[in-house]
Amino acid sequence: MNLKSTEDLKILVIEDNIGDFILIKDYIEEQVESPHIINAKSYSEAIEALSNQSINFDVVLLDLTLPDKGGESLITDIISCCPDTPVIILTGYANVEFSLKSLALKATDYLLKDDINSSSLYKSIKYNIERKKTNLQLEESEKRYSDLFQLSPQPMWILDIDSLSFIQVNNSAISQYGYSESEFLKLQLPDILYNEYDFSDKINKDKHFINNPNIYKGRFKHKKKSKEAIEVDIYSTLIIINNKKCESAIAIDVTDKIMTELKITNAIIKTQEDERYEIGTELHDNVCQILASSQLSLEMLKDHISDESVIWLNKSKEFINLALKEIRSISHRLAPSFFDFTTIEDTFKELMDTFNIDKKYEINFNIDFSKLDGRINVDMQLNLYRILQEQLRNISKYANAQKISIESFIENDEFKFYIIDDGIGFDFLRVKKGIGLANIKRRAELFSGRMDIVSSKGMGCKLIITLPLHP
């Protein structure tokens, strides 16, 4: 026993042949208990029925030959009147080429009248109703995504992971970077990176910018079409489009934030240096003078004490002399002398001599300071001194090294400063970053530079400071 469906189907049959309409109606009524079927015998009647706001048709069955219209224009006009309703073409002509063209015109199915029966017609109706609902839901979802994408106040784009080409960009990205949409879609990700090292060092070529199944976060320096540099935080995630892996990314401009942080860092470092200079000066000018006066006072006692006591007097003078040397060394480290009296070369060499006073390390010091004349100011000199001082402290505490190499050269208007040791090394990605390295990184960034570290267990450590030499 065939149980009929009790669903409330509203069907518009656009058919001028009364015999064909009755047959179609019978087929439907064999499957559905009480269908609501309306017959339109012409194009004008069909338009009138579709314009009736009181009836929302679930499906339209369309014959291709009507008294007042037919063919492609009939299909196009009917679909435009009911874009959310599935339109199934029923025809007596078996033309494969035209059937494909009909589907291209967004008809949902193409059935031959001679081949259908009640079951096949009902299945087609049900299938196309459900497919249309699914397609409408998908279109609505895509529209919501498109609205979120285009209306986002932050630049967003979609990349092809294999080629790193831009597939889609939103209006904010176009406004931020200054490229038109067509110009953007001709670019690849490296084209907007300000520094080549960002591509080679920060983007894993095997994983193509995706280093986490859920989300990636990284900071990059980008360049606009005008060549202006901006700092951006990138948040990206993997998506699949047409069975192809892509990356959806949002770029947040943090240039102003970084400039503010640099001003704060600069103020902190300046305060620290002023305090060090004050302490160093106080030690050198006051404490050393007090100790020197103590030496003179002890010398005056020499003729008034026994020969046995002279031995202890001389010991005391030796201790005071050692204290003077140590305090002078501390004061020079706190307040480098190139601030006022000497050159960066002499100050660096003095630092090396103090660090290696017991000749524990084999040090190769290879810096041509003549090439730096006028190209790095006192503030930059002081920061290089502090960076060297900090890294030498790290080597002394952790590296267990024997050889240290300090080198520099200038390339493409950039000053490269290397501090290399042959110590035990470490895994830079796993080791916990200390205050020392954080201070070095901040000092480099203060001058729009960067800190890079190359190290692995048992292979020593190479610290690279790169500073631009632009005015």
Rg on CA atoms, Å? 41 Å
Question: Strand fraction band?
Answer: 15-25%
Mean pLDDT: 83
Helix and strand pattern: EHEHEHEHEHEEHHHEEEHHHEHEEHEE
Give the strand order, joined by hyphens, for the main sheet.
Answer: 2-1-3-4-5
Quaternary organization: single chain
CATH topology of the largest domain: Rossmann fold
Per CATH, the superfamily of the largest domain is Response regulator
Give the N-to-C terminal Cα separation.
92 Å
Q: Which percent bin holds the helix content? A: 40-55%
The largest sheet, given as strand count, sense and whether it forms a barrel, is: 5 strands, parallel
Q: What is the SS-derived class?
A: alpha/beta
Q: Count up the helices.
A: 13
What are the low-pLDDT stretches, counting only 5+ consecutive residues below 50? Answer: 204-211
What features would you describe in this structure?
- The model is unreliable at 204-211 (pLDDT under 50).
- By secondary structure, the protein is α/β, with parallel strands linked by helices.
- It is 45% helix and 21% strand.
- Helix 1 (18-31) packs across helix 5 (118-151) and helix 12 (378-399) packs antiparallel against helix 13 (435-445).
- The longest helix has 46 residues, at 255-300.
- It starts with 9 loop residues before the first strand and ends with a strand.
- It contains 13 helices and 15 strands.
- The protein has a 5-stranded parallel beta sheet with strand order 2-1-3-4-5, with helices on both faces. Strands 7-6-10-9-8 form a 5-stranded antiparallel beta sheet, sandwiched between helices. Strands 11-12-13-15-14 form a 5-stranded mixed beta sheet.
